Amino acid sequence: MTEPIAQTEPRPAAAKRFLHLGAMQRLLAFGALIVLFVGFSLASPNFLQFDNVVGILLATTVNGVLALGVTFVIITGGIDLSVGTVMTLSAVTTAVFITNWHLPVLLGIMAGLVTGALSGMVNGTLIAKLKIPPFIATLGMLNVARGLALVFSGLRPIYFNDTPVFNQVAMGSLLGSIVPGFEVPNLVLVLFGAAVLASLALSKTVFGRYTFALGSNEEATRLSGVDVDAWKIGVYAVTGLFAGLAGVLIGARLNSAQPSLGLGYELEAIAAAVIGGTSLSGGEGTILGTVIGAFIISTLTNGLRILSVPQEWQTVVTGAIVILAVYLDIIRRRRQS
Question: CA-to-CA distance for 284 and 14, rounded, in angstroms?
């Protein structure tokens, strides 16, 4: 059987130009991150303090994990608007298992991850089998997950006060015990560990190759004999799994499951992926770029807050940067063609 990738890859010269332009955008994103660090450091002596840098790392964790999952879907040419509320539903499920039902912490964590993966599978099934547009299907799941989170929690936050080990697993510092004074929360290590695994899955596995193939030319991939529907469901399930992990992390960080939390997180996750060079047209994206994009958003938000910029203007600036990133992607696509 002919490999589908061979049918969807561009010609060698076009491929080299394509990779070069993608690398340039990642380099520009990294340069922008450096500029933000230097600019805010000059504007405020408090910005580069160790506690503030750790705060930036913590702020990046949840959004970064969500963005990792969203990257897979966007590369296929799809979108997932439900990751924020699926994250909340996963956090509530974890809390119900651990706090309400007094089950082991590990079992509660697994329940949160499974909740996210199942939500993603439902999204993928609606899109692949019922042919519902991704925007509509995931928008529906956004409201379903939000409602279920409120139902499962009884409209009230659920706290992990009886299981302090859950909070310590996330907010404790493994690095601090190895290097005294280097108190970086374990959540940050989880983010980088998840990024490494996501990068390997995207670049070194058949799953990653088919993810790119779906975004590059889905019809050619289908004609080559690949079960496109099954792989698409798998991609959305992986995105849901990352949303479940984000739910576990935010529950551990806040030491509670907040059922009203979640709306807006999906936009920041998508923004991080786009800023990092993932194309909304599909077929292009990297995990490294997404991580850089997540750090740009959290650094920008932190720096503007230190400079006492009002919250509404912080949102305006973030939105303008997303528009600029999408415009740069359009220009890059035109040059590629």
Answer: 14
Residue with tokens 């089950």: 103
pLDDT-flagged residues of the chain (< 70): 1-22, 176-179, 181, 336-337
Start-to-end CA span in the chain (Å): 29
- Report d(CA 186, CA 169) in Å as an integer: 7
Report pLDDT digits (tens) over 131-184.
999 999 999 999 999 999 999 999 999 999 999 899 988 888 887 666 676 788
> Domain range for residue 235?
4-336
- Residue 166 to residue 315: CA distance in whole angstroms: 32
High-pLDDT (> 70) share of the chain, %: 91
Cα–Cα distance between 331 and 201 in angstroms, integer? 28
What phi and psi values does residue 158 have, to the nearest 5 degrees? -115, 125
Q: What is the SS3 assignment for 255?
A: coil
Note the pLDDT of residue 169: 83
Burial label, 156 (beta-carbon count in 10 A; 0-12, 13-18, 19+): exposed
Joined together, the tokens standing for residue 249 give 């992390």
Please answer whether residues 26 and 286 qualify as being in contact, where contact means their C-beta atoms are separated by less than 8 angstroms: yes
State both tokens at 273.
């992926």
- Count of domains observed in the chain: 1
Strand-pairing partners, residue 256, are 159
Q: What is the CATH number of the domain that holds 179?
A: 1.10.3470
Kindly compute the dihedral angle of the four CA atoms of residues 16, 22, 27, 29, in this order, to the nearest 10 degrees: 170
Distance CA 88, CA 259 (A): 6
